[in-house]
Design brief:
Structural class: alpha/beta
Number of strands: 18
Number of helices: 19
Largest sheet: 11 strands, mixed
CATH superfamily of the largest domain: Ribokinase
CATH topology of the largest domain: UDP-N-acetylmuramoyl-L-alanine:D-glutamate ligase
Oligomer: single chain
Bound molecules: ligand NPW, potassium ion
Strand order of the largest sheet: 1-9-18-17-16-15-14-13-10-11-12
Strand content: 15-25%
CATH class of the largest domain: Alpha Beta
Mean pLDDT: 96
Shape: elongated
Helix content: 40-55%
Distance between the termini: 16 Å
Radius of gyration: 25 Å
Low-confidence stretches: none
CATH architecture of the largest domain: 3-Layer(aba) Sandwich
Length: about 450
C-alpha cells in the first residue's frame, strides 16, 4: 500500500528527518535520483535543466552537476535567481548557462529536458516564459523528466493547470495527490518514487498496489462451500435494460461468488440461457446488488429500504443511488460515477471532477457507507475519511456496461464477508488489472471472463 502525502505532510516528514539527523543531505539524495532516472531515460546527448528559484531548482542544479561529469549540460535559470550552492556545483562541474531565448533554441539539439522550476512550493500555473518553453518541449517532442512534479501543477491538486507535460516524474519519499489523481496525474508520465530516507506515516489517502489485491483476495480454503463463499442476490436489470442483469451476473460469477440468485425484473429465461448456475428468485443471502439497469422503477425506494430493514449488506448502483434510505448505511457500498455523485450532492459534475476527494468523502460521511467513485482514477472513501485509490488500469474499460459488471463483482466480494471498502477496492482493481493484462476493446462481459485467470495468478503469488 502506498501512502500518499500532501505537501504539508511531506514537509513534516522531512522535518522529522532533519530533527533526527541535522546534517542529512536530502537534496543530494534527491539530485542523485533525478540524475539516475535522466540517464536511464535518455543515456546520451545534451541535458537542458530548467531551474526555478527554490529548492526544486536546487535539486535540478545538483542533478545538473552530477550529469555534467559525463555529458553536456545546459542550465536555464527560468526565474532569474537560483539555489546558490547548487548553481556553483553545476557551473564547477561544467554546465553551461543559457537564457530564455537560448533555452528555446537549444531544444533542437537537446536529448532531454529536466524540469526543476517548481515542486512542493508550486502555485498552480506557470510564468509566461516558462509556459512557452514547456509548450515548445511538447511541440518538439523532447522528453521531459520532472523533478518532484511537473511544474505548474499543484502538489495536492487533481486539476490541470498550464504545466510541463512530463514523460517521467521523479518524486521523493511518497507520491503526492497530483501524482495519483486524474487529470493531474496524466501530466506526470511514468512515476518514480525515490527513497531518500523520508518515512511516510499512515495517512488518510493511500493507493492500493497489486500485492495488496493478491493479499486481500478471498481465496477459498479446504473447508469452503458455496454458502461460506457467499450467496449474492442480484436485483439488477429490468425489462427495458435486461443486459445489465446479464452483466452483473457475469461479474459476480467470474470473480467466484459461492452462489448467485437473480431476483430482478429481467426475463429469467434470458438469465438461465446465459448463466445456468444462477438460481432464480430471492432467498438466503449474504449481500445484494441493487440498481444497475433499473431505469425509472416504481418501487425503488421500498426495495432499497427492504435491504436496510433486513440488514443485508448492499452494493447500491446507478438508479438506486437516488433512493437511499435515511440513517447510517453501515456495511454498504455505493458505486457512483462522477455524474451520479454530483446528483447525490446537488453540485455539478465539473465540481466532482475537480474536487474528487472532498466529494467522495462527503458522501461517505453523510451516509456511513463506503463510496466507490468510478472513473479514470477510482476512489473508495470510508466514514472515517480514509480514501484508498484502486489499482489503475487502461481506459479500455471506459465503456457502457463496465459499471454493471463491476457492481456484480463488488457484490460477490461483499457476500464473501469482506468489509465494504475492501470489496470496492478489490472490485475496481481486478477489473483494471484484467484490462491491463488484456489490452483491447473487449466488451465488459468478455473482460469479466478473463478475470478468473488473473485471480488464479494472484492466488498463486501469495
Ligand atoms: N521537502 C522535502 O522533503 C524535500 C524537498 N526537496 C525539494 O524541494 C522542493 C520544495 O522546495 P521549495 O519549498 O523551495 O519550493 P519550490 O517548489 O522550489 O518553489 C518555490 C519557489 O517557486 C516560486 N513559485 C512557485 N510557484 C510559482 C509559479 N506558479 N510561478 C512563479 N513562481 C512560482 C515560489 O515563489 P513565491 O511563491 O515565493 O513567490 C518560490 O520562489 C521539493 O519539491 C523538492 O524538489 C528535496 O530537495 C529534498 C526533500
Ligand atoms: K518540477
Amino acid at each position: 500500500m502506498r501512502q500518499i502525502l500532501t505537501a504539508k505532510q511531506l514537509r513534516a516528514a522531512e522535518q522529522r528527518v532533519f530533527d533526527a539527523e541535522p546534517d542529512v543531505d536530502l537534496m543530494g539524495r534527491a539530485a542523485q535520483a533525478v540524475a539516475r532516472v535522466t540517464d536511464a531515460v535518455v543515456p546520451t546527448g545534451t541535458v537542458l535543466v530548467a531551474v526555478g528559484q527554490g529548492n526544486n531548482g536546487g535539486d535540478g542544479l545538483f542533478a545538473a552537476a552530477r550529469l555534467a561529469a559525463h555529458r553536456p549540460v545546459l542550465v536555464w535559470l527560468a526565474m532569474g535567481s537560483a539555489h546558490e550552492a547548487g548553481l556553483e556545483a553545476a557551473v564547477v562541474a561544467g554546465a553551461q548557462e543559457v537564457d530564455a531565448v537560448g533555452a528555446i533554441k537549444a531544444l533542437a539539439e537537446c536529448s532531454v529536458v529536466v524540469d526543476a522550476v517548481t515542486g512542493l512550493g508550486s502555485r498552480p500555473g506557470l510564468p509566461a516564459e516558462v509556459e512557452t518553453f514547456a509548450a515548445a518541449c511538447q511541440a518538439q517532442g523532447v522528453p521531459v523528466v520532472a523533478v518532484d512534479l511537473p511544474s505548474g501543477l499543484g502538489a495536492d491538486d487533481a486539476r490541470v493547470h498550464p504545466s510541463f507535460q512530463a514523460d517521467h516524474t521523479v518524486t521523493f519519499g511518497a507520491p503526492k495527490p497530483c501524482h495519483v489523481l486524474n487529470p493531474a496525474a496524466s501530466r506526470c508520465g511514468v512515476l518514480h518514487v525515490a527513497d531518500i530516507g523520508i518515512d511516510a506515516e499512515p495517512t488518510m489517502l493511500r493507493a492500493a498496489e497489486e500485492s495488496d489485491i493478491a493479499a486481500w483476495w478471498p481465496v477459498p480454503g479446504a473447508r469452503s462451500d458455496k454458502y461460506s463463499r457467499g450467496v449474492l442476490v442480484l436485483d439488477t436489470g429490468s425489462e427495458s435494460y435486461p443486459g445489465a442483469a446479464l452483466l452483473s451476473c457475469a461479474g459476480a460469477l467470474h470473480v467466484g461468488a459461492g452462489m448467485v440468485r437473480y431476483a430482478g425484473r429481467a426475463p429469467s429465461g434470458l438469465i438461465m440461457s446465459r448463466f445456468p448456475s444462477v438460481v432464480i428468485g430471492d432467498g438466503r443471502a449474504e449481500a445484494t446488488v441493487l440498481g444497475s439497469g433499473w431505469g425509472d422503477r416504481d418501487n425503488a425506494e421500498s426495495r432499497v429500504e427492504w435491504a436496510k430493514l433486513h440488514q443485508l449488506p448492499a452494493v447500491v448502483d446507478a438508479d438506486a443511488l437516488y433512493s437511499l434510505p435515511s440513517g447510517r448505511l453501515d456495511g454498504w457500498l455505493l458505486t457512483p460515477h462522477a455524474g451520479e455523485l454530483a446528483r447525490i450532492l446537488g453540485c455539478t459534475r465539473a465540481h466532482v471532477e475537480s474536487q474528487p476527494l472532498e466529494c467522495v468523502r462527503e458522501v461517505a460521511r453523510t451516509t456511513g457507507a463506503a463510496v466507490l467513485l468510478k472513473g479514470a482514477t477510482q476512489y473508495v472513501a470510508e466514514l472515517s475519511g480514509r480514501v484508498t485509490i484502486a489499482v489503475p488500469g487502461p481506459a479500455w474499460t471506459a465503456r457502457a456496461g463496465s459499471g454493471d459488471v463491476l457492481a456484480g463483482i463488488c457484490g460477490a466480494l461483499l457476500a464473501s464477508g469482506l468489509p465494504a471498502w475492501k470489496a470496492g477496492v478489490l472490485g475496481a482493481s481486478i477489473q483494471a488489472m484484467t484490462a491491463a493484462r488484456n489490452p483491447g476493446p473487449y466488451t465488459p462481459d468478455e473482460l469479466s471472463a478473463r478475470m478468473p485467470a488473473v485471480i488464479a495468478e494472484l492466488a498463486a503469488a501469495r
